[in-house]
Design a protein that fits this description.
This protein is an alpha/beta fold. It has a single domain, classed as Rossmann fold (3-Layer(aba) Sandwich), CATH 3.40.50. Helix 4 links the parallel strand 2 and strand 3. Helix 3 packs across helix 4, helix 5 packs across helix 6 and helix 7 packs across helix 8.
Length: 244
């Protein structure tokens, strides 16, 4: 029996000005009151644009031997939109490395970054100054502790699981899928693909690349995805395109 295989590429957006300042972004550019102040802060920095161009060059090389064009999904937040637009121009534009084609980009709310609630837009020292008791509790608790107005880990896992399940279920032929998203929710997407109910503490650099190949039919039928024959890891938190 022939099985369909899906290649799923997850990538974080390029660096933003907020990242440079070590601010916790979350979904801060959704807040109308903060939007004017956050306008430039949540955009890609100059370094971030260069990172995306480097990633685009790497992905463009794949297109030279690709059998099918990738499907592209992205978070609707500004930094992700800017990243995917620059990737599309680099790979599929008139001077791109791949074929010049009109490209559909599917924006999905389930790929948005974790909502950090009252910490959105703050650096950690600012959060400690404003909410000292809460920050001390977060540092001392053994288990996850709720931040007011923030999204819970359980909800993050549920929306990541729902996205991956729908993505794989709706893929009717062997294909390659590119997903541009954020470090926080990306960890939950990785867990959903691997069949884990937990995430791992790992630093995911801007434009870091993860690539998984799924045996689609077996993956969908499995009740527990602990069998490594269901998926293969080709790249994990890979930033080789950035050099150094």
């Amino acid at each position: 029996m022939k099985h369909l295989h899906l290649k799923i590429l997850l990538m974080r957006h390029g660096e933003t000005w907020d990242n440079q300042a070590q601010r916790m972004q979350g979904q801060r550019d959704r807040d109308p009151a903060a939007l004017a102040l956050a306008c430039r802060a949540t955009e890609l920095s100059g370094s971030g644009q260069q990172q995306v161009l480097a990633l685009g060059g790497r992905l463009g090389q794949r297109l030279k031997t690709a059998q099918v064009l990738p499907q592209i999904y992205a978070s609707p937040l500004r930094r992700s939109r800017e990243t995917v637009a620059l990737l599309a121009e680099t790979c599929f534009g008139p001077t791109g490395l791949g074929p010049t084609v009109p490209l559909a980009i599917h924006y999905d709310e389930r790929l948005a970054e974790i909502d950090l609630g009252i910490f959105s837009g703050l650096t950690w020292p600012e959060a400690e100054a404003r909410y000292p008791a809460l920050c001390q509790t977060l540092l001392s608790q053994l288990d996850a502790y709720p931040v007011p107005e923030a999204e819970t880990p359980q909800h993050c896992h549920q929306r990541a699981e729902a996205f991956v399940q729908a993505l794989v279920w709706n893929s009717s032929e062997s294909s390659e899928i590119w997903i541009v998203t954020h470090a926080g929710i990306l960890a939950h997407l990785v867990a959903a693909i691997l069949g884990s109910d937990r995430t791992w503490g790992m630093a995911i650099a801007p434009t870091a690349l993860f690539e998984f190949e799924l045996n689609r039919d077996r993956w969908l039928l499995a009740t527990e995805r602990l069998n490594p024959a269901l998926w293969t890891i080709h790249h994990f938190n890979d930033t080789a395109h950035l050099g150094g």
